[in-house]
Every structure is written in C-alpha cells, then in structure tokens.
Amino acid sequence: MRVLIVDDHPxxxxxxxxxxxxxxxxxxxxxxxSVGGTILAVNDDPPPDLIILDLMLGNSDGLELIKQxxxxxxxxxxxxxxxxxxxxxxxxxxxxxxxxxxxxxxSSEEVLxxxxxxxxxxxxxxxxxxxxxxxxxxxxxxxxxxxPEASPPLSNRELHxxxxxxxxxxxxxxALELRLSGKTVETYRENLKIxxxxxxxxxxxxxxxxxxxxxx
Length: 216
Description:
The chain is an alpha/beta fold and about 220 residues long. It has 2 domains: about 130 residues, Rossmann fold; about 60 residues, Arc Repressor Mutant, subunit A (Orthogonal Bundle). Strands 2-1-3-6-7 form a 5-stranded parallel β-sheet, sandwiched between helices. Strands 4-5 form a two-stranded antiparallel ribbon. The chain starts with a strand and ends with a helix.
C-alpha cells in the first residue's frame, strides 16, 4: 500500500517515513510539509492509498485540507496523527472525511496498527475514545461524539476554550494555556454565550462543566 506522510516537523516526519519504509506491506510514496505539497502528492498517478496527516500544518486548517483531499480523490484514506486532544478534534476530523485519529504520543506499533486498520476499511480511534463511545451508546456511530449543539457550530478554538472553562480554568489561565490575550479569551467567551444561547457567565460555566463531566 502506498503511504504519504504529511507533517511540518522534519524529525517527526522523518521518523514516520522510516517506520513506514521498514514495513513489508507498505511503500512510502512521498512526504509533504505543506498544503500545497500535499495537494501535488494527492494528484500523483497513482495516488497514495493512505495519507498519515498532521492536523496542524503551520497556520493552515487541517480539517479543510482533509475536505480538499476527499473532494479531489475520494478513494484516498486519511489517518490523522496529532498532538491535540482527541476529545476535541477526533469527531471533527472524522466528519471532515478522515478514517482515523491517533495521538502523536502513541507507540510506533500503535501507529502501524492504526494505519493497517484504516487500510482494511476500519475506523480507528483510541481505546479511550472507544470506551467513551461505548458508554454513550455511540459505538456504531463514531462520528457522533458529544459535541455541544450550537448555532452556528463552534469553531475548534471556541470548543477548546469551552473545554478549559469546564475544567475550571479562569480567563487568565486559559490565556496562558492557549497563548492568547485575556481580551481574546473574553471574546471567545462572549461568542460561546451567543452560539449556545446562554444568558450570562454563570450559565456558561455551568454548561461547560456539565459537558466536560459528561464526556469524561
């Protein structure tokens, strides 16, 4: 199976490339570190069978890149590999068209297991996420995680702020965690209240805590 590695960190990309190259059932067909490079590789003939894709490529939106790949080559399978919390991003990656989501902290053996599972037509999620889905009765519908209903939908950053609020962090602590200004965090809080139809800060904090408690 032809595998393309997409990651803007040279050491991580090189490690993944070496891992894939050492497998008898996989062929490393290319590497890319940007959206443009990924699209060029996707348009190769023959195209890759699988893309192992870092969700964050510089300032680019990895979710939009997944959608672009699916539009150009619907047959290509995508396994997202990321350092970002799967409870926040896995559902969105699957909805965008990915077939799996694995954290970068996982072992090489688990990455290979995920890649082979996706190539075999399976949806790959961590054991932690599978347990969560099973407990919530969503084991057969992995794209329907418990994301807060909002209109319009919450952005990735808004969802991240919401999760941190629910975990008990203050505006100042969230600003430090996300490397944002306090004013920017306050703007996200206002947006959350509007989108979630909440009347004040107390209701926002209560709703955020209830959501965090629900998803574990």
